[in-house]
Amino acid sequence: MREDDVLYALPAPHIALITLKRVEVRNAQDTQMLYAVHDAFKRAAGDDNIKVIILAANGAHFSAGNDLREVDEIQNLAAHDTIGMWSDFAAPGQEGMMAREREVYFGIAEAIRSVPKPTIAAVQGRCISGGLMLVWPCDIIVAADDASFIDNTLVLGIPGVEWFAHPFELGPRKAKEMLFGAEAVSAQDAAQLGMVNHVVPAKELREFAIALATRFAKQSSFALKLAKEAVNSFQDSQGREAAMKSAFLAHQLGHSHSKEVFGLPIDPRNLDAKLLKGTKYER
After folding, report:
1. CB-hemisphere CA count at 13 Å for 67?
2. pTM
3. Where are the alpha helices (H) located in the chain, listed in sequence order?
4. Residue 282 falls within a domain, yes or no?
5. Which of 21, 77, 175, 225 could join 167 via S-S bond, C-beta 3.0 to 4.6 A?
6. Which of 98, 140, 139, 136 shows the shortest CA–CA distance to 229?
7. Cα–Cα distance list, 44 to 38, 63, 84 (Å)
8. Cα dist. 86→112, 268, 278 in Å?
9. Which domain holds residue 227?
10. Strand, coil or helix: what is 210?
């Protein structure tokens, strides 16, 4: 078992800071890291002294996305207590893969969104695909001026990441452009679209996030919880949950199609063979 995939700190009164720390792989997210993130949020949520939670990352980039080099994800998943009710992770066909992705991707993103305390994501460098499923569930996004947000899953033959918040975060037309082109959305453009709250110089990112969290922490805990519930309920009344579940099923169809056509859960045609070398997708 690796240690320190995620660091947990208390940088200021009533503030918890959760930091991704797999810098050697640009904070690529495997099963162990995702459960570590979940456990850290759960720890902060259960601490009555904590009012606001910050999610940050060490290194030049927030996250390179899901770790394609993880080859024993089923065994790794079995080493943790599941957060949801899905099971049969080793089932044949698409059933097992769907169950796993419902647990560690969709499930953990929903769990972060549901934390009854304000959450702030502090993002620098690239935040790619799976990284969006950690950032978008947070209530506030503060981005360094060098940050960019990318969902390149269409390159893999998949219609978007498992937790499909794109139209809610960017609006339908920009979401389509982001997906169709698999191109980066800059921090500045994301701020104009309302996805990012603040853009700050990279060297000031962590300090700014802590200062913002400190401002929020001056409010009563109960009022913060109620305000968050009110806004989340507003989104849900617009059909957010139903739309995401439908997109999740489309994502699974993309995997199933690729398995039938290419013998892999992704379409390898547009990928550099070097990228797949040493991964479970190497041919």
Report:
1. 19
2. 0.96
3. 31-45, 73-78, 93-101, 108-113, 132-135, 166-170, 172-181, 187-192, 205-216, 221-237, 240-262, 273-276
4. no
5. 175
6. 139
7. 10, 22, 19
8. 18, 29, 30
9. 6-204+221-276
10. helix
Task: Report yes or no on 43 lying in a domain.
Answer: yes
**Strand ordering across the sheet containing 126-128:** 126-128, 148-150, 185-186
Q: Considering the domain boundaries, does residue 281 fall inside one?
A: no
The structural domain count of the chain equals: 1
Q: Domain for residue 1, yes or no? A: no
CATH number of the domain where residue 97 is located: 3.90.226.10
Predicted confidence pLDDT, tens digits, the chain (283 residues) = 566 899 999 999 999 999 999 999 999 999 999 999 999 999 999 999 999 999 999 999 999 999 988 888 888 998 899 999 999 999 999 999 999 999 999 999 999 999 999 999 999 999 999 999 999 999 999 999 999 999 999 999 999 999 999 999 999 999 999 999 999 999 999 999 999 999 999 999 999 999 999 999 999 999 999 999 999 999 999 999 999 999 999 999 999 999 999 999 999 998 876 667 777 777 6
